Amino acid sequence: MANLRIPINSNFTSRFVSFLNRSFSTNKALNAQPMTVRDALNSAIDEEMEKDERVFILGEEVAQYDGAYKVSRGLWKKYGDKRVIDTPITEMGFAGIAVGAAMAGLKPVCEFMTFNFSMQAIDHVINSAAKTFYMSAGRVNVPIVFRGPNGAASGVGAQHSQCYGAWYAHCPGLKVISPYTSEDCKGLLKAAIRDPDPVVFLENELLYGVQFPMSDEALSKDFIIPIGKAKIEKPGKHITLVAHSRAVDTCLIAAKELAGQGIEAEVINLRSLRPLDMDAINASVMKTNHLISVEQGWPTCGIGSEVLARIMESEVFFHLDQPAIRITGVDTPMPYAKTLEEAALPRASDVVTAVKKILKA
Amino acid sequence: MFLRQSSLVLRKYLKNTHKLKLFSTSTSTIDYPGAQVIWSGNLSFTNSHSYPPISTYRVLNSKGQITNNSEDPKLSNDVLEKMYKDMVLLNVMDKILYESQRQGRISFYMTNFGEEAAQIGSAAALSIEDLVYGQYREAGVLLWRGFTIADFVNQCYGNVEDKGKGRQMPVHYGSKKLNFVTISSPLTTQMPQAAGAAYALKGKNKVVICYFGEGAASEGDAHAAFNFATTLDCPVIFFCRNNGYAISTPADEQYRGDGIAARGPGYGLNTLRVDGNDVFAVYNATLKAKEFALARNKPVLIEALTYRVSHHSTSDDSSAYRPADEVTHWATHLNPVNRLRLYLEHNSLWNEDKQKEWMKECRKNVLTVFEEGEKKVKPHWNEMFTDVYKDIPDHLKKQMEEMAQHVEQYKDKYPVKNFS
Ligand SMILES: Cc1ncc(C[n+]2csc(CCOP(=O)(O)OP(=O)(O)O)c2C)c(N)n1
Ligand SMILES: [Mg+2]
């Protein structure tokens, strides 16, 4: 519902600063040590490779170069050519090889330089990885993780700035994760690698360098976050904001601003897009009686559409005091120009405006 | 129905199998439909050692001398000078735009250092009516065709004069006027598309040239393009810039076998391999490819062997994966621009004074245009909503109108003067 977006002059720098200075809601976090999303992902892969010899990583530039976004930093040095494999530039090829290796008992972590390039390989992801367990009557499973940056980065134009959350979440057989914090990334990537089914793991390039607090528990090698469970990032009682990936950040900034005006928004970080944690959303909506979904992807058949439809189909619908709405990326390919790019994605000010409109505040 | 038919076929086949015995003669060949047959009693592998490497055609040696006069392309002095001047101008533009990215003035850039001869030589052999599909490292081709420095700069800034309305990343140039199809980010999509365009242009007395890297050649689309171009008889020149690297991946990790050229005969493609740092060799090869493609309506594969002196892009630091000596060697001793300069100097077509003057002119030109480009306003904000569809759908129209109202209401709060 991009038409609910009332942009207020938002200067990029100030937004960026507020993005970094976000306040964290959990108490635990206060004495926790910070870690970047990149390092969290790296340690998840490292720990799982150490633990299970069947785990290996392959993709373009993942070895000596440490990955296009340095997520596999140091792994080639540590594990060598056998388990950190640079591939020729053939997404269709290395996705297929990964599927074959998974069928034969290995546990590949298949890195797409960006999910935009997974389009070259989508037949392997959907027609092979996602469906083989079913088609083989449960005899052949495909334990594989397809991972890489997803969604809008900055200044990379239409063909590099697309959210594939809804695309993959559409497909039975896949599990789809869209993490936000470093803890999410570590716990969920480890869970994904251990999972017996194919998992699509959607990272965000702009979050790679961002530090989040890591609890002691999260630093442990046994730290796992269950797939399919959402997290309440900030509790509140007036309205539920449901988001994934970087849009959670947008919601937290908005929630902070709203708090200053006496509105307590509850921010739900979905973490998993498939399965979708409707229990968490339902419980929240029953408490707040208002719902807005926020995502960077396009509106049509998006994650927000799915959340709203499921509410509509359930008892929880009767708990809504106002129609639930979606805030999404604008329904156009991503513009390159910085200002237009910013305007094409949901901003905290859009969320604030929408919340006030719904709450008639 | 299907079952009955196939059982009929089977019965016929079995009958004929018996007949075959009766009619079998002593001739030594059978026409299998899939390939030509030469019988052999020796069981041995065919591999890259079964025949010598494909030879590499060269005209100018590294001292800038023509080694075999019969191969002199006999270009006019004007053309020779334009070739050289465009190479230098390309270098100067690359240097300035690369640095502007480092200073954060544009978001991204890719330079062409080391591949000037491959670009300029091939561009010069074609006419402007021939259609170009590029990968991204072909700015020299555009420059040759008349894309101005302002055109490059406006695209990189995505300002109001960018023909692409600021919609694409830097270096994703395109020009309808110059028959240069806009660069697309996902690798190798240009290859089957070029074959398709050539198919559509058959009989129009033009060819399509399609540039691609040796890395891009690993994508499945490259296979599809070769196979379709030959089976559909498309007048397309597949021009591989084999520059030894795909970001950090060296060619010997990208593929095995005798380069990209060796794949040509396998697809039934007429193939040429040239020294890509020799502008005359590239020119002659491209001209021959064009003549052949037009005369026979068939595709040609050219592999130009060259070296990517540049970092892959502004997002790359190649010192992490290749020795500095290697780069210096290619940038100095095997530099394609210097090679042409030596040739021109031998033939009294160029000298140090001209060099100084041209360098000065290039720098002044690029810097002026660059400063102007930076100051130009951005495209109108409503361009965000246009061109998604030919006719703007109602929901976008509504949003656009709301935005117009909103911007009007809060114009004091927006930097409206920065937009056209
Ligand atoms: C489908 C796809 N996969 C990966 C990429 C990322 N990528 C961009 S350029 C490049 C290297 C290409 O190398 P090459 O074709 O040799 O061209 P060169 O850069 O050497 O000119 C890669 C991997 C992409 N743009 N598209
Ligand atoms: Mg290359």
TrEMBL record, chain A:
Substrates-to-products reaction catalysed: N(6)-[(R)-lipoyl]-L-lysyl-[protein] + pyruvate + H(+) = N(6)-[(R)-S(8)-acetyldihydrolipoyl]-L-lysyl-[protein] + CO2
Protein function: The pyruvate dehydrogenase complex catalyzes the overall conversion of pyruvate to acetyl-CoA and CO2.
SUPFAM superfamilies: Thiamin diphosphate-binding fold (THDP-binding), TK C-terminal domain-like
Domain Transketolase-like pyrimidine-binding: 35-210
Location of this chain's protein in the cell: Mitochondrion
UniProtKB keywords: Metal-binding, Mitochondrion, Oxidoreductase, Potassium, Pyruvate, Thiamine pyrophosphate, Transit peptide
Enzyme Commission code(s) on record: 1.2.4.1
Name assigned to this protein: Pyruvate dehydrogenase E1 component subunit beta
Main location: mitochondrion
Cofactor: thiamine diphosphate
InterPro entries according to UniProt: PDHB_mito-type (IPR027110), THDP-binding (IPR029061), Transketo_C/PFOR_II (IPR009014), Transketolase-like_Pyr-bd (IPR005475), Transketolase_C (IPR033248)
Any GO CC annotation of this UniProt entry: mitochondrion
Single Gene Ontology BP annotation: pyruvate decarboxylation to acetyl-CoA
Gene Ontology MF: a single term: metal ion binding
Automatic annotation (TrEMBL), chain B:
Record field: transmembrane: none
GO cellular component, one term: mitochondrial matrix
EC number(s) recorded for this UniProt protein: 1.2.4.4
Cofactor(s) the protein requires to work: thiamine diphosphate
Location of the protein in the cell: Mitochondrion matrix
Catalytic activity of the protein: N(6)-[(R)-lipoyl]-L-lysyl-[protein] + 3-methyl-2-oxobutanoate + H(+) = N(6)-[(R)-S(8)-2-methylpropanoyldihydrolipoyl]-L-lysyl-[protein] + CO2
This protein's record includes keyword Mitochondrion: yes
InterPro entries: Alpha-ketoacid_DH_E1_comp (IPR050771), DH_E1 (IPR001017), THDP-binding (IPR029061)
Chain ranges of the Dehydrogenase E1 component domain: 85-380
Top-level class of the enzyme under EC nomenclature: oxidoreductase
CDD domains: TPP_E1_PDC_ADC_BCADC
Keywords assigned: Metal-binding, Mitochondrion, Oxidoreductase, Potassium, Thiamine pyrophosphate, Transit peptide
GO biological process: branched-chain amino acid catabolic process
Family: Belongs to the BCKDHA family.
PANTHER family reported for this sequence: 2-OXOISOVALERATE DEHYDROGENASE SUBUNIT ALPHA, MITOCHONDRIAL
Described purpose of this protein according to its UniProt entry: The branched-chain alpha-keto dehydrogenase complex catalyzes the overall conversion of alpha-keto acids to acyl-CoA and CO(2). It contains multiple copies of three enzymatic components: branched-chain alpha-keto acid decarboxylase (E1), lipoamide acyltransferase (E2) and lipoamide dehydrogenase (E3).
Protein name: 2-oxoisovalerate dehydrogenase subunit alpha
Lineage, uppermost ranks: Eukaryota, Metazoa, Ecdysozoa, Arthropoda, Hexapoda
